[in-house]
Amino acid sequence: MNFHRIRPLFFGLWAVFATVLSGAELNVFAAASLSDALKVMSKDYEAKTGDKLLLNLAASNVLARQIKEGAPADLFFSADLAKMDDLEKAGLIAPDSRTTLLSNSLVIVVNREGGPAITAPADLAKASVGRIALAEPQTVPAGIYAKEYLQKAGLWKQVIDKVVPTESVRSCLLAVELGNVDAGIVYKTDALISKKVKVAYEIPAAEGPKISYPVAVVRESKSPEAARRFAAYLKTPEALALFSKYGFQAAPKPEAAPAAVPKR
Amino acid sequence: MEETFEITLFTLGVAALGTFLAFPFAIGLAWLLARRNWWGKSLIETLVALPLVIPPVATGLLLLLLLGRRSPVGSFVENTLGLEIIFTWRAVVLAAAIMSFPLLVRSARVAFEGVSPRLEQVARTLGASPGKVFATITLPLAARGLVAATLLAFARALGEFGATVMIAGYIPGKTATLSLSIYHLVQLGRDGEALGLLFWSIALAFGAVWLGEWFLKRRAS
Amino acid sequence: MNLRLQDIHLPLSEFTLKVDVLLKGRVTALFGASGSGKTTLLEIVAGLRRPASGRVQLSNSVLTDAGARLSVPVHRRDIGYVPQEGALFPHLSVRQNLLYGFTSKPERPAALSFAHVVEVLEIGTLADRRVATLSGGEKQRVAFGRALLAAPRLLLLDEPLAGLDLPLKERLLPYLGRIRDEFAIPMLYVTHAANEVMALCDEVLALDKGQVWFQGNPQEFFEPSQTVSYVVRAKS
User: Fold this and answer.
1) Are C34 and C194 in contact (CB under 8 A)?
2) Measuring CA to CA, which residue among A188, A194, A191, A192 is closest to residue A208?
3) Average pLDDT of each block of 10 consecutive residues along chain A (264 residues)?
4) Do B171 and B164 contact (CB within 8 A), yes or no?
5) Which residue in B122, B134, B144 has the most chain C C-beta atoms within 10 A of its own C-beta, making it the best mutation to test that interface?
6) What is the pTM of this model?
7) Contact residues on chain A for B168, CB-CB shorter than 8 A
8) ipTM confidence score
9) Exposure check for chain B: N or C terminus, fewer CB within 10 A?
10) Quick check: helix, strand or coil at residue A254?
């Protein structure tokens, strides 16, 4: 064994020890729509505090189910209230740790390179629009919100045969990006990060569903203090500014109309 | 679940169609692999085995990139032939065909290799053209093995999930196979309702494989 | 027969097959130890293998010409082949085996009718039996019959009596004699049994490690001095 082989081994061991000794590792189960913002945030957070964020990003219904089945989560950051309520009823959330911080809006997106023209929601019912991707409307928050909106707009029955359900809002976005569907309904935050789609119509806050992103510490968390620390960090102006950079809005206040964070 | 019957029927149909489509290519290739040698043969053997070992979702992703509307192949099929593939029943059939293809080739090859080349040679000296030799000697003697191979491939097609979910997705009434429906119900938290589908899934696969094994063991009549 | 094997050359794993002869016998014995290249030579004549160089010509037809990249396909050569194991088709009945190569050609000699062949070889009673139910001797006779009924110009037999016990060999030898006499089809007969050569053949071609070391008649071949000196005889 020559010395040059041993050196990386030592560094590896040292790094592991350093991590173990220095900071906690937090399993953050977060909705897919939060992917990009959280990935950036976790780098900053780790540099700042030494706590490492391990992100498990998927549709909120999938995450909720995993937590119910005992997956080792420390924090749950859901895209709708229903999933969080579910876990709370099952006693899986640390009491008093739940807050709702963020909101989002829905947009209808189309592929940048062409396809049927869509300028208003009613266009979705046109014959020229063949397939519409939605996140699974029975389980995934983005799909539930989209269906709620389409029902309110009286369009659901006309488009139901065109719907291609996808596993998460991100795979919905992908379907539009690849051009395999004519349109999709995703969060505004998703549309902003994709270069291959453009927003055909933004559903105004007044007409759209109330979207809320609650976050809570999981009761069985192995690092509850670190989890609470991060939950507290999420409320800081710095964190909120990062989210708003990605297009998220502040949570709708229960008593007042939703107030949007001033867009840049 | 009321739709259990439709879903089971649909699954049987797409698996059968997929196996049927794969059959001529698989048999032809299996014969070539059994009876001929050529430069690059091991490359072909490896390529054919890939869908067996690559994760099905990876194969599905490859197909998605190859056949999506904006890809060269996909746009040709859609614009020139007027056929949509992704997110339709055609994608389900395609996934079934591709995922069962390697299994069919392998087993069919073994069946052909079990036919003594001497018999084929003698047939040729008796004036039989290569086509006649294949039809009257090779095929009948390999028949039992070929039937078993087809049934095995059919069973595989019945249970196909990973590639299907990528290129066809789960669209109730349009692409819902047994495996996709079971997965969907579990996602919804309604696993209890998936039991009927589970039963049929197992029953069909069991039947297909059992029949295949029976064929292999049967004495030549 | 009039079988010209001209400058046949084929490297094999342990030696090179080199044959340059003209065979004229009614029944020519192809004599040699195991692995001396006899089966390979038969396969070349049948068209199942190609030589690296050389020509195969039967009477007026050139069947193989390696230099000209010519090789008449096996199924058009009209050369019958009975391999060592007989190789009856197990999924067909005896009758179906016999009739496999049977076509009603106008030039078919009357002697080669189904009835006559079956009578000469005494396999009539076997016609509707399945192959698996036949004894070793019966299988061989059916194999001969099958090859004959295809009306070949030349019949290649690869040790047809090997693997049969002595009484059976003695019983079958006359049938081969009948084939020679009744049907007048030339035969190239691989064997290493002297009694078969003496009983059937009027010409002997002997191979050792792929090379011809004797061509001539059986009497000369079995002279005691021949087995001692390996002299390559002049072509006849």
Assistant:
1) no
2) A188
3) 69 63 83 93 92 92 90 93 92 90 93 86 90 92 94 92 91 91 93 92 88 92 91 92 91 55 48
4) no
5) B122
6) 0.80
7) none
8) 0.88
9) C
10) coil
A133-151 pLDDT, tens digit each: 999 998 899 999 999 999 9
Chain B residues whose CB is inside 8 A of the A180 CB are: 64, 68-69, 86-87
A212: Cβ contacts below 8 Å, ≥ 6 apart: A80, A81, A100, A102, A103, A251, A252
Gap between the terminal Cα atoms of chain B: 44
Given a contact cutoff of 8 angstroms between Cβ atoms, the answer to whether A127 and A224 are in contact is no
Q: Please choose, from the candidates C50, C47, C43, C48, the residue with its C-alpha nearest in 3D space to the C-alpha of residue C10.
A: C50
CA–CA gap between residue B204 and residue C119 (Å, rounded):
55
Which residue of chain C has the CA closest to B219? C91
Number of residues that this document lists for chain A: 264
How many residues belong to chain C? 236
User: Which of B122, B129, B141 is facing C87, going by the closest CB pair?
Assistant: B122
Write the pLDDT tens digit of every residue in C106-137. Answer: 677 777 888 888 988 888 899 888 999 998 88
With an 8 Å Cβ cutoff, are C78 and B126 in contact? no
Phi, psi torsion values for C112, nearest 5 degrees: -95, 35
**What's C130's DSSP letter?**
B
- Contact between residue A50 and residue A23 where contact means Cβ atoms under 8 Å apart: yes
Q: What is the DSSP string of A87-148?
A: HHHTT-B-TT--EEEEE--EEEEEETT--S--SSGGGGGSTT---EEEE-TTTSHHHHHHHH
CA distance, residue B121 to nearest chain C CA (Å): 7
Measure B19 CA to nearest chain A CA, in Å: 26
The H or E element containing residue C155 is strand C154-158
The Cα of A107 is separated from the nearest Cα of chain B by a number of Å equal to 22
A128: CB partners within 8 A, 6+ apart = A116, A117, A182
